[in-house]
Amino acid sequence: MDEELQSKIWQLERQVFQLRTLFEVAQALNRCRQPDELYSRILAIMAGTFGARESLALQFDHGVPVVAAYRGSQEQVAEVLRERLPASFPQASIRQQKQLIGEALGESGADQDFTLWEWIEVQNQPVGGLYFGKKILGEPYNSNDEALLRAVCSYAAHVLENITLYQQLRRAHERLAAENLVLKQKVRQQALSQEIIGQSRPIEQLRQLILNYGRSEAPVLITGETGTGKELVARAIHEASARSNGPFVAINCAAIPDNLVESEFFGIEEGVATGVKRRIGYFEQAHTGTLFIDEIGDMPPGTQVKLLRALQEGVVRRIGGQLEIPVDVRIVTATNQNLKQLIRENRFREDLFYRISVLEIDVPPLRERREDIAVLARYFLERKNQHNGQKIIGIAPETLRILEHYDWPGNIRELENEVERWDAILQEGDLVQPEHLSPRIRRRSEESEAVAGMPKNLREAVDRLERKMIVQALNEARGNKSEVARRLGLSRLGLQRKMERLNIRYSEDGHAAADEA
Protein backbone atom coordinates (compact mmCIF):
# COMPACT_ATOMS: atom_id res chain seq x y z
CA MET A 1 0.00 0.00 0.00
CA ASP A 2 2.83 2.36 0.86
CA GLU A 3 4.52 1.63 -2.45
CA GLU A 4 1.30 2.36 -4.35
CA LEU A 5 0.87 5.65 -2.47
CA GLN A 6 4.50 6.52 -3.07
CA SER A 7 4.02 5.86 -6.80
CA LYS A 8 0.96 8.09 -6.92
CA ILE A 9 2.80 10.86 -5.10
CA TRP A 10 5.71 10.56 -7.52
CA GLN A 11 3.35 10.72 -10.52
CA LEU A 12 1.60 13.74 -9.03
CA GLU A 13 4.93 15.49 -8.47
CA ARG A 14 5.91 14.64 -12.02
CA GLN A 15 2.67 16.17 -13.35
CA VAL A 16 3.20 19.28 -11.24
CA PHE A 17 6.75 19.55 -12.60
CA GLN A 18 5.50 19.24 -16.17
CA LEU A 19 2.79 21.83 -15.59
CA ARG A 20 5.36 24.20 -14.10
CA THR A 21 7.59 23.61 -17.11
CA LEU A 22 4.72 24.30 -19.51
CA PHE A 23 3.81 27.43 -17.56
CA GLU A 24 7.41 28.63 -17.71
CA VAL A 25 7.52 27.96 -21.47
CA ALA A 26 4.22 29.78 -21.98
CA GLN A 27 5.45 32.81 -20.05
CA ALA A 28 8.68 32.91 -22.06
CA LEU A 29 7.05 32.43 -25.47
CA ASN A 30 4.29 34.99 -24.94
CA ARG A 31 6.93 37.73 -25.11
CA CYS A 32 8.46 36.44 -28.36
CA ARG A 33 8.14 38.44 -31.58
CA GLN A 34 10.67 36.58 -33.72
CA PRO A 35 10.96 32.82 -34.52
CA ASP A 36 14.67 32.72 -33.58
CA GLU A 37 13.83 34.17 -30.19
CA LEU A 38 11.13 31.51 -29.65
CA TYR A 39 13.46 28.62 -30.46
CA SER A 40 16.23 29.99 -28.23
CA ARG A 41 13.91 30.35 -25.24
CA ILE A 42 12.49 26.85 -25.65
CA LEU A 43 15.98 25.33 -25.75
CA ALA A 44 17.07 27.34 -22.70
CA ILE A 45 14.19 25.92 -20.65
CA MET A 46 13.88 22.38 -22.02
CA ALA A 47 17.59 21.56 -22.18
CA GLY A 48 17.76 22.24 -18.44
CA THR A 49 14.53 20.34 -17.82
CA PHE A 50 15.77 17.22 -19.61
CA GLY A 51 19.41 17.63 -18.57
CA ALA A 52 20.48 17.23 -22.22
CA ARG A 53 24.12 17.64 -23.20
CA GLU A 54 23.14 19.47 -26.37
CA SER A 55 19.94 20.65 -27.99
CA LEU A 56 19.06 21.94 -31.41
CA ALA A 57 16.17 23.81 -33.05
CA LEU A 58 15.70 23.55 -36.80
CA GLN A 59 13.51 25.82 -38.88
CA PHE A 60 12.28 24.59 -42.28
CA ASP A 61 12.83 27.16 -45.03
CA HIS A 62 10.88 25.76 -48.01
CA GLY A 63 11.57 22.30 -46.63
CA VAL A 64 15.30 22.91 -46.14
CA PRO A 65 16.41 22.61 -42.47
CA VAL A 66 18.13 25.73 -41.13
CA VAL A 67 19.61 26.00 -37.64
CA ALA A 68 17.46 28.44 -35.63
CA ALA A 69 19.10 27.86 -32.20
CA TYR A 70 21.69 25.57 -30.60
CA ARG A 71 22.93 24.80 -27.07
CA GLY A 72 26.00 22.66 -26.68
CA SER A 73 29.75 22.51 -27.08
CA GLN A 74 30.09 22.06 -30.84
CA GLU A 75 31.20 24.89 -33.12
CA GLN A 76 29.93 25.75 -36.61
CA VAL A 77 26.86 23.57 -36.12
CA ALA A 78 24.99 25.21 -39.01
CA GLU A 79 27.81 24.39 -41.45
CA VAL A 80 28.16 20.85 -40.05
CA LEU A 81 24.47 20.08 -40.55
CA ARG A 82 24.42 21.71 -43.98
CA GLU A 83 27.23 19.38 -45.06
CA ARG A 84 26.09 16.18 -43.32
CA LEU A 85 22.31 16.15 -43.63
CA PRO A 86 21.29 14.50 -46.91
CA ALA A 87 19.10 16.22 -49.48
CA SER A 88 16.41 13.64 -48.76
CA PHE A 89 16.08 14.84 -45.14
CA PRO A 90 12.75 16.73 -45.68
CA GLN A 91 11.12 13.57 -47.11
CA ALA A 92 12.31 11.30 -44.28
CA SER A 93 10.01 10.16 -41.46
CA ILE A 94 10.29 11.79 -38.05
CA ARG A 95 12.09 8.71 -36.71
CA GLN A 96 14.57 8.70 -39.61
CA GLN A 97 15.15 12.44 -39.19
CA LYS A 98 16.04 11.93 -35.53
CA GLN A 99 18.62 9.34 -36.52
CA LEU A 100 20.07 11.54 -39.27
CA ILE A 101 20.42 14.52 -36.89
CA GLY A 102 22.09 12.33 -34.26
CA GLU A 103 24.58 10.99 -36.79
CA ALA A 104 25.29 14.51 -38.08
CA LEU A 105 26.03 15.66 -34.51
CA GLY A 106 28.33 12.68 -33.88
CA GLU A 107 25.92 10.52 -31.90
CA SER A 108 25.82 7.69 -34.42
CA GLY A 109 24.95 4.30 -32.96
CA ALA A 110 23.00 5.84 -30.11
CA ASP A 111 19.78 4.09 -29.15
CA GLN A 112 16.68 5.96 -30.32
CA ASP A 113 15.49 6.14 -26.70
CA PHE A 114 18.48 8.30 -25.74
CA THR A 115 17.52 11.21 -28.04
CA LEU A 116 14.36 13.20 -28.71
CA TRP A 117 13.10 14.86 -31.93
CA GLU A 118 9.67 16.41 -32.38
CA TRP A 119 8.12 18.49 -35.15
CA ILE A 120 6.46 21.85 -34.68
CA GLU A 121 3.50 21.89 -37.04
CA VAL A 122 1.44 24.88 -38.18
CA GLN A 123 -1.73 24.05 -40.10
CA ASN A 124 -0.61 20.39 -40.34
CA GLN A 125 2.69 21.38 -41.99
CA PRO A 126 6.06 20.98 -40.23
CA VAL A 127 7.70 24.41 -39.91
CA GLY A 128 10.49 23.32 -37.58
CA GLY A 129 11.57 20.84 -34.93
CA LEU A 130 13.32 20.42 -31.58
CA TYR A 131 16.13 17.91 -30.99
CA PHE A 132 17.61 16.90 -27.63
CA GLY A 133 20.72 14.75 -27.38
CA LYS A 134 21.84 12.34 -24.69
CA LYS A 135 21.17 13.24 -21.09
CA ILE A 136 24.08 14.15 -18.85
CA LEU A 137 23.10 11.38 -16.41
CA GLY A 138 23.03 8.83 -19.23
CA GLU A 139 19.44 7.71 -18.71
CA PRO A 140 17.01 7.30 -21.64
CA TYR A 141 14.05 9.55 -22.38
CA ASN A 142 10.71 8.14 -21.23
CA SER A 143 7.11 8.55 -22.33
CA ASN A 144 6.61 11.46 -19.92
CA ASP A 145 9.50 13.33 -21.55
CA GLU A 146 8.01 12.69 -24.99
CA ALA A 147 4.57 13.86 -23.85
CA LEU A 148 6.06 17.03 -22.34
CA LEU A 149 7.99 17.82 -25.54
CA ARG A 150 4.87 17.26 -27.67
CA ALA A 151 2.92 19.65 -25.43
CA VAL A 152 5.67 22.27 -25.72
CA CYS A 153 5.81 21.90 -29.53
CA SER A 154 2.03 22.20 -29.74
CA TYR A 155 2.07 25.43 -27.77
CA ALA A 156 5.05 26.72 -29.77
CA ALA A 157 3.10 26.07 -32.99
CA HIS A 158 0.31 28.40 -31.85
CA VAL A 159 2.83 31.07 -30.90
CA LEU A 160 4.63 30.72 -34.24
CA GLU A 161 1.35 31.12 -36.09
CA ASN A 162 0.65 34.29 -34.10
CA ILE A 163 4.19 35.54 -34.80
CA THR A 164 3.63 34.99 -38.54
CA LEU A 165 0.38 36.96 -38.40
CA TYR A 166 2.08 39.64 -36.33
CA GLN A 167 4.91 39.96 -38.86
CA GLN A 168 2.45 40.20 -41.74
CA LEU A 169 0.49 42.90 -39.93
CA ARG A 170 3.70 44.74 -39.03
CA ARG A 171 4.94 44.69 -42.62
CA ALA A 172 1.56 45.89 -43.81
CA HIS A 173 1.68 48.69 -41.24
CA GLU A 174 5.20 49.66 -42.26
CA ARG A 175 4.25 49.74 -45.92
CA LEU A 176 1.19 51.84 -45.15
CA ALA A 177 3.38 54.21 -43.18
CA ALA A 178 5.84 54.37 -46.08
CA GLU A 179 3.04 55.04 -48.56
CA ASN A 180 1.80 57.79 -46.28
CA LEU A 181 5.23 59.39 -46.33
CA VAL A 182 5.32 59.21 -50.11
CA LEU A 183 1.84 60.76 -50.35
CA LYS A 184 2.97 63.61 -48.11
CA GLN A 185 5.97 64.07 -50.35
CA LYS A 186 3.67 64.29 -53.37
CA VAL A 187 1.53 66.91 -51.64
CA ARG A 188 4.61 69.01 -50.89
CA GLN A 189 5.66 68.80 -54.52
CA GLN A 190 2.29 69.62 -56.08
CA ALA A 191 3.54 73.15 -56.85
CA LEU A 192 6.15 71.61 -59.17
CA SER A 193 5.04 70.97 -62.72
CA GLN A 194 4.86 67.34 -63.72
CA GLU A 195 5.12 68.25 -67.39
CA ILE A 196 8.21 68.47 -69.55
CA ILE A 197 8.25 72.11 -70.71
CA GLY A 198 9.45 73.03 -74.18
CA GLN A 199 8.63 73.11 -77.89
CA SER A 200 11.93 72.08 -79.45
CA ARG A 201 12.44 68.90 -81.42
CA PRO A 202 14.69 67.32 -78.71
CA ILE A 203 11.92 67.83 -76.14
CA GLU A 204 9.28 66.37 -78.46
CA GLN A 205 11.50 63.31 -78.89
CA LEU A 206 12.00 63.14 -75.11
CA ARG A 207 8.24 63.18 -74.50
CA GLN A 208 7.74 60.34 -76.97
CA LEU A 209 10.45 58.26 -75.29
CA ILE A 210 8.78 58.81 -71.90
CA LEU A 211 5.46 57.54 -73.28
CA ASN A 212 7.17 54.51 -74.85
CA TYR A 213 9.14 53.64 -71.72
CA GLY A 214 6.04 54.09 -69.58
CA ARG A 215 4.56 51.03 -71.28
CA SER A 216 7.57 48.92 -70.26
CA GLU A 217 8.69 47.42 -66.94
CA ALA A 218 12.39 47.42 -67.90
CA PRO A 219 14.94 49.46 -65.90
CA VAL A 220 15.72 52.93 -67.30
CA LEU A 221 19.03 54.81 -67.13
CA ILE A 222 18.71 58.60 -67.50
CA THR A 223 21.87 60.50 -68.41
CA GLY A 224 22.43 64.23 -68.69
CA GLU A 225 24.25 67.19 -67.23
CA THR A 226 23.48 68.61 -63.80
CA GLY A 227 20.27 70.60 -63.72
CA THR A 228 18.70 69.19 -66.89
CA GLY A 229 15.68 67.77 -65.02
CA LYS A 230 16.51 64.05 -64.77
CA GLU A 231 14.28 63.52 -61.72
CA LEU A 232 11.39 65.23 -63.52
CA VAL A 233 11.87 62.81 -66.42
CA ALA A 234 11.95 59.86 -64.00
CA ARG A 235 8.72 61.00 -62.35
CA ALA A 236 7.10 61.45 -65.79
CA ILE A 237 8.05 57.85 -66.69
CA HIS A 238 6.46 56.68 -63.43
CA GLU A 239 3.27 58.67 -64.08
CA ALA A 240 3.06 57.24 -67.62
CA SER A 241 3.37 53.66 -66.34
CA ALA A 242 0.95 51.12 -64.88
CA ARG A 243 2.64 51.81 -61.51
CA SER A 244 1.42 55.41 -61.36
CA ASN A 245 -0.87 54.60 -58.39
CA GLY A 246 2.12 53.17 -56.51
CA PRO A 247 4.79 55.15 -54.67
CA PHE A 248 7.57 57.08 -56.40
CA VAL A 249 10.58 57.06 -54.07
CA ALA A 250 13.57 59.22 -55.04
CA ILE A 251 17.01 58.94 -53.44
CA ASN A 252 20.30 60.68 -54.25
CA CYS A 253 23.31 58.43 -53.64
CA ALA A 254 25.64 61.42 -53.35
CA ALA A 255 23.60 62.75 -50.41
CA ILE A 256 23.95 59.60 -48.24
CA PRO A 257 27.12 58.86 -46.21
CA ASP A 258 28.83 55.67 -47.40
CA ASN A 259 28.27 53.89 -44.07
CA LEU A 260 24.49 54.46 -44.27
CA VAL A 261 23.81 53.65 -47.94
CA GLU A 262 23.10 49.95 -47.34
CA SER A 263 20.70 50.50 -44.42
CA GLU A 264 18.89 53.27 -46.32
CA PHE A 265 18.32 51.05 -49.35
CA PHE A 266 17.59 47.72 -47.67
CA GLY A 267 16.48 48.64 -44.13
CA ILE A 268 17.80 47.55 -40.74
CA GLU A 269 16.49 45.44 -37.88
CA GLU A 270 16.22 46.61 -34.30
CA GLY A 271 19.14 45.82 -32.03
CA VAL A 272 21.81 45.49 -34.73
CA ALA A 273 23.73 48.12 -32.78
CA THR A 274 23.09 50.06 -29.59
CA GLY A 275 20.14 52.39 -29.99
CA VAL A 276 19.27 51.20 -33.51
CA LYS A 277 15.55 50.88 -34.21
CA ARG A 278 13.89 48.91 -36.99
CA ARG A 279 13.59 50.87 -40.22
CA ILE A 280 12.41 49.78 -43.63
CA GLY A 281 14.55 50.69 -46.63
CA TYR A 282 13.79 52.46 -49.87
CA PHE A 283 13.14 49.18 -51.70
CA GLU A 284 10.30 48.27 -49.35
CA GLN A 285 8.97 51.84 -49.43
CA ALA A 286 8.82 51.68 -53.23
CA HIS A 287 6.99 48.32 -53.30
CA THR A 288 4.55 48.20 -56.29
CA GLY A 289 5.97 51.52 -57.50
CA THR A 290 9.16 53.09 -58.83
CA LEU A 291 12.50 53.56 -57.08
CA PHE A 292 14.49 56.44 -58.59
CA ILE A 293 18.22 56.28 -57.78
CA ASP A 294 19.96 59.54 -58.70
CA GLU A 295 23.75 59.85 -59.01
CA ILE A 296 24.11 56.05 -59.10
CA GLY A 297 27.74 56.48 -60.15
CA ASP A 298 28.45 57.51 -56.53
CA MET A 299 27.09 54.25 -55.06
CA PRO A 300 29.74 52.35 -52.99
CA PRO A 301 30.97 49.07 -54.57
CA GLY A 302 29.62 46.93 -51.72
CA THR A 303 26.13 48.32 -52.15
CA GLN A 304 26.37 47.81 -55.91
CA VAL A 305 26.66 44.05 -55.30
CA LYS A 306 23.56 43.97 -53.10
CA LEU A 307 21.62 46.17 -55.51
CA LEU A 308 22.43 43.77 -58.34
CA ARG A 309 21.20 40.82 -56.25
CA ALA A 310 17.99 42.65 -55.35
CA LEU A 311 17.34 43.41 -59.03
CA GLN A 312 18.06 39.83 -60.09
CA GLU A 313 16.10 38.02 -57.38
CA GLY A 314 13.43 40.57 -56.43
CA VAL A 315 14.10 40.19 -52.70
CA VAL A 316 15.90 42.24 -50.05
CA ARG A 317 17.21 41.38 -46.61
CA ARG A 318 17.44 44.03 -43.94
CA ILE A 319 20.74 44.48 -42.13
CA GLY A 320 20.70 42.09 -39.19
CA GLY A 321 17.64 40.25 -40.52
CA GLN A 322 17.18 36.66 -41.60
CA LEU A 323 14.04 36.97 -43.71
CA GLU A 324 14.19 37.63 -47.43
CA ILE A 325 11.46 40.15 -48.19
CA PRO A 326 9.99 40.08 -51.72
CA VAL A 327 9.74 43.50 -53.39
CA ASP A 328 8.01 44.52 -56.61
CA VAL A 329 9.89 47.61 -57.75
CA ARG A 330 10.77 49.23 -61.06
CA ILE A 331 14.22 50.80 -61.06
CA VAL A 332 14.97 54.12 -62.75
CA THR A 333 18.50 55.46 -62.32
CA ALA A 334 20.26 58.66 -63.32
CA THR A 335 23.78 59.99 -63.52
CA ASN A 336 25.76 62.92 -64.90
CA GLN A 337 28.90 60.76 -65.04
CA ASN A 338 30.26 58.50 -67.76
CA LEU A 339 29.51 55.05 -66.30
CA LYS A 340 31.53 53.28 -68.99
CA GLN A 341 34.56 55.29 -67.95
CA LEU A 342 33.88 54.37 -64.30
CA ILE A 343 33.76 50.70 -65.37
CA ARG A 344 37.19 51.06 -66.99
CA GLU A 345 38.45 52.58 -63.74
CA ASN A 346 36.95 49.67 -61.73
CA ARG A 347 34.63 52.05 -59.86
CA PHE A 348 31.37 50.68 -61.24
CA ARG A 349 30.27 47.10 -61.87
CA GLU A 350 29.84 46.22 -65.53
CA ASP A 351 27.11 43.62 -64.79
CA LEU A 352 25.14 46.21 -62.82
CA PHE A 353 25.48 48.71 -65.69
CA TYR A 354 23.89 46.30 -68.15
CA ARG A 355 21.16 45.48 -65.62
CA ILE A 356 20.10 49.12 -65.10
CA SER A 357 20.56 50.37 -68.69
CA VAL A 358 18.09 48.17 -70.56
CA LEU A 359 16.42 51.43 -71.66
CA GLU A 360 18.33 54.73 -71.86
CA ILE A 361 17.33 58.39 -72.09
CA ASP A 362 19.76 61.26 -72.59
CA VAL A 363 18.26 64.57 -71.43
CA PRO A 364 19.61 67.37 -73.70
CA PRO A 365 21.29 70.40 -72.09
CA LEU A 366 19.54 73.76 -72.39
CA ARG A 367 22.14 75.14 -74.82
CA GLU A 368 21.11 72.45 -77.33
CA ARG A 369 17.47 73.59 -77.29
CA ARG A 370 17.75 77.37 -77.12
CA GLU A 371 14.26 77.81 -78.57
CA ASP A 372 12.92 76.50 -75.22
CA ILE A 373 14.71 79.12 -73.11
CA ALA A 374 12.09 81.84 -73.59
CA VAL A 375 9.27 79.33 -73.01
CA LEU A 376 10.86 78.11 -69.78
CA ALA A 377 11.67 81.62 -68.54
CA ARG A 378 8.06 82.75 -69.03
CA TYR A 379 6.78 79.55 -67.41
CA PHE A 380 8.94 79.99 -64.28
CA LEU A 381 8.04 83.70 -64.09
CA GLU A 382 4.30 83.00 -64.33
CA ARG A 383 4.54 80.29 -61.68
CA LYS A 384 6.42 82.68 -59.41
CA ASN A 385 3.80 85.39 -59.96
CA GLN A 386 1.02 82.97 -59.01
CA HIS A 387 2.87 81.78 -55.93
CA ASN A 388 3.71 85.24 -54.55
CA GLY A 389 0.77 87.23 -55.84
CA GLN A 390 3.24 89.63 -57.48
CA LYS A 391 2.85 90.59 -61.11
CA ILE A 392 6.07 91.10 -63.07
CA ILE A 393 4.46 91.92 -66.38
CA GLY A 394 6.95 90.17 -68.64
CA ILE A 395 10.41 89.91 -70.14
CA ALA A 396 11.77 92.47 -72.58
CA PRO A 397 12.72 91.19 -76.08
CA GLU A 398 16.35 92.28 -75.61
CA THR A 399 16.46 90.37 -72.32
CA LEU A 400 15.14 87.23 -74.02
CA ARG A 401 17.78 87.62 -76.74
CA ILE A 402 20.52 87.71 -74.08
CA LEU A 403 19.04 84.69 -72.28
CA GLU A 404 18.93 82.71 -75.52
CA HIS A 405 22.58 83.45 -76.27
CA TYR A 406 23.78 82.43 -72.81
CA ASP A 407 25.07 78.83 -72.57
CA TRP A 408 23.44 77.95 -69.18
CA PRO A 409 26.08 75.59 -67.72
CA GLY A 410 23.66 74.92 -64.84
CA ASN A 411 20.84 74.21 -67.32
CA ILE A 412 17.19 74.47 -66.23
CA ARG A 413 18.07 74.75 -62.56
CA GLU A 414 20.24 77.81 -63.27
CA LEU A 415 17.47 79.41 -65.33
CA GLU A 416 14.93 78.77 -62.58
CA ASN A 417 17.29 80.34 -60.03
CA GLU A 418 17.70 83.38 -62.30
CA VAL A 419 13.92 83.85 -62.37
CA GLU A 420 13.91 83.50 -58.58
CA ARG A 421 16.37 86.40 -58.49
CA TRP A 422 14.07 88.60 -60.59
CA ASP A 423 11.29 87.97 -58.12
CA ALA A 424 13.52 89.29 -55.34
CA ILE A 425 14.75 92.50 -57.05
CA LEU A 426 11.76 93.62 -59.17
CA GLN A 427 8.56 95.36 -58.17
CA GLU A 428 4.92 95.06 -59.16
CA GLY A 429 4.44 96.05 -62.82
CA ASP A 430 8.15 95.84 -63.74
CA LEU A 431 9.42 94.43 -67.02
CA VAL A 432 12.58 92.32 -66.88
CA GLN A 433 15.26 94.42 -68.62
CA PRO A 434 18.88 93.42 -69.48
CA GLU A 435 20.17 95.38 -66.46
CA HIS A 436 18.13 93.09 -64.19
CA LEU A 437 20.07 90.02 -65.28
CA SER A 438 22.82 88.48 -63.15
CA PRO A 439 26.26 90.00 -63.73
CA ARG A 440 27.64 86.70 -65.05
CA ILE A 441 24.92 86.53 -67.75
CA ARG A 442 25.41 90.17 -68.79
CA ARG A 443 29.17 89.74 -68.80
CA ARG A 444 28.94 86.62 -70.96
CA SER A 445 26.60 88.46 -73.34
CA GLU A 446 29.00 91.39 -73.66
CA GLU A 447 31.89 89.00 -74.28
CA SER A 448 29.87 87.22 -76.95
CA GLU A 449 29.01 90.50 -78.65
CA ALA A 450 32.63 91.62 -78.47
CA VAL A 451 33.76 88.36 -80.03
CA ALA A 452 31.03 88.65 -82.67
CA GLY A 453 32.24 92.19 -83.52
CA MET A 454 35.90 91.26 -83.88
CA PRO A 455 37.36 91.07 -87.40
CA LYS A 456 37.65 87.59 -88.80
CA ASN A 457 41.17 88.09 -90.14
CA LEU A 458 44.02 90.62 -90.46
CA ARG A 459 42.82 91.98 -93.83
CA GLU A 460 39.42 92.85 -92.34
CA ALA A 461 41.09 94.49 -89.34
CA VAL A 462 43.26 96.68 -91.63
CA ASP A 463 40.24 97.60 -93.77
CA ARG A 464 38.25 98.66 -90.71
CA LEU A 465 41.10 100.86 -89.48
CA GLU A 466 41.70 102.46 -92.90
CA ARG A 467 37.96 103.05 -93.38
CA LYS A 468 37.68 104.73 -89.99
CA MET A 469 40.76 106.96 -90.55
CA ILE A 470 39.72 108.03 -94.07
CA VAL A 471 36.12 108.87 -93.02
CA GLN A 472 37.40 110.88 -90.07
CA ALA A 473 39.94 112.77 -92.24
CA LEU A 474 37.31 113.55 -94.92
CA ASN A 475 34.95 115.00 -92.33
CA GLU A 476 37.73 117.11 -90.78
CA ALA A 477 38.96 118.35 -94.23
CA ARG A 478 35.38 118.95 -95.40
CA GLY A 479 35.82 116.63 -98.37
CA ASN A 480 39.15 118.07 -99.61
CA LYS A 481 40.75 114.91 -100.93
CA SER A 482 44.16 116.51 -101.56
CA GLU A 483 44.29 117.58 -97.88
CA VAL A 484 43.15 114.10 -96.76
CA ALA A 485 45.85 112.44 -98.92
CA ARG A 486 48.49 114.75 -97.42
CA ARG A 487 47.38 114.03 -93.85
CA LEU A 488 47.33 110.26 -94.39
CA GLY A 489 50.59 110.13 -96.36
CA LEU A 490 48.92 108.94 -99.55
CA SER A 491 48.84 110.10 -103.16
CA ARG A 492 45.51 111.48 -104.35
CA LEU A 493 45.21 108.51 -106.74
CA GLY A 494 46.00 106.05 -103.89
CA LEU A 495 43.32 107.71 -101.71
CA GLN A 496 40.76 107.49 -104.51
CA ARG A 497 41.45 103.78 -105.02
CA LYS A 498 41.10 103.05 -101.29
CA MET A 499 37.82 104.96 -101.12
CA GLU A 500 36.45 102.90 -104.01
CA ARG A 501 37.61 99.59 -102.48
CA LEU A 502 36.28 100.45 -99.03
CA ASN A 503 32.96 101.89 -100.35
CA ILE A 504 33.62 105.34 -98.86
CA ARG A 505 31.73 108.32 -100.25
CA TYR A 506 31.48 112.01 -99.38
CA SER A 507 27.93 113.30 -99.68
CA GLU A 508 26.84 116.78 -100.74
CA ASP A 509 25.64 117.59 -97.23
CA GLY A 510 29.28 117.56 -96.09
CA HIS A 511 29.51 114.15 -94.39
CA ALA A 512 31.66 111.14 -95.23
CA ALA A 513 30.22 107.63 -94.86
CA ALA A 514 31.25 104.05 -95.59
CA ASP A 515 29.22 100.96 -96.48
CA GLU A 516 30.85 97.79 -95.06
CA ALA A 517 30.94 94.94 -97.54
- What percent strand? 5-15%
Low-confidence blocks of residues: 187-193
Helicity, as a percent range: 40-55%
Q: Over all CA atoms, what is the radius of gyration?
A: 41 Å
* Global mean pLDDT: 84
Structural class: alpha/beta
Q: How many beta-strand runs?
A: 15
Question: Outline, from the CA principal axes?
Answer: rod-shaped
Work out the helix count: 19
Largest sheet, strands/sense/barrel: 5 strands, parallel
Topology of helices and strands:
Layout: H1 2-29, H2 35-50, E1 55-61, E2 64-71, H3 77-84, H4 94-104, E3 116-122, E4 125-132, H5 143-188, H6 201-214, E5 220-223, H7 230-239, E6 248-252, H8 261-266, H9 282-285, E7 290-294, H10 301-313, E8 315-316, E9 325-326, E10 330-335, H11 339-344, H12 350-356, E11 359-362, H13 373-388, E12 394-395, H14 397-405, H15 411-425, E13 431-432, H16 439-453, H17 458-476, H18 481-488, H19 492-501, E14 504-506, E15 512-514
Parallel strand pairs: 5-10, 5-11, 6-7, 7-10, 12-13
Antiparallel strand pairs: 1-2, 1-4, 3-4, 8-9, 14-15
Please provide a written account of the structure:
The chain has 517 residues and is of the alpha/beta class. It is 50% helix and 13% strand. The chain is built from 19 helices and 15 strands. The chain has helices at residues 2-29, 35-50, 77-84, 94-104, 143-188, 201-214, 230-239, 261-266, 282-285, 301-313, 339-344, 350-356, 373-388, 397-405, 411-425, 439-453, 458-476, 481-488, 492-501; strands at 55-61, 64-71, 116-122, 125-132, 220-223, 248-252, 290-294, 315-316, 325-326, 330-335, 359-362, 394-395, 431-432, 504-506, 512-514. A hairpin with a 5-residue loop joins β14 (504-506) and β15 (512-514). The longest helix has 46 residues, at 143-188. The termini are far apart. Mean pLDDT is 84; it is low at 187-193.
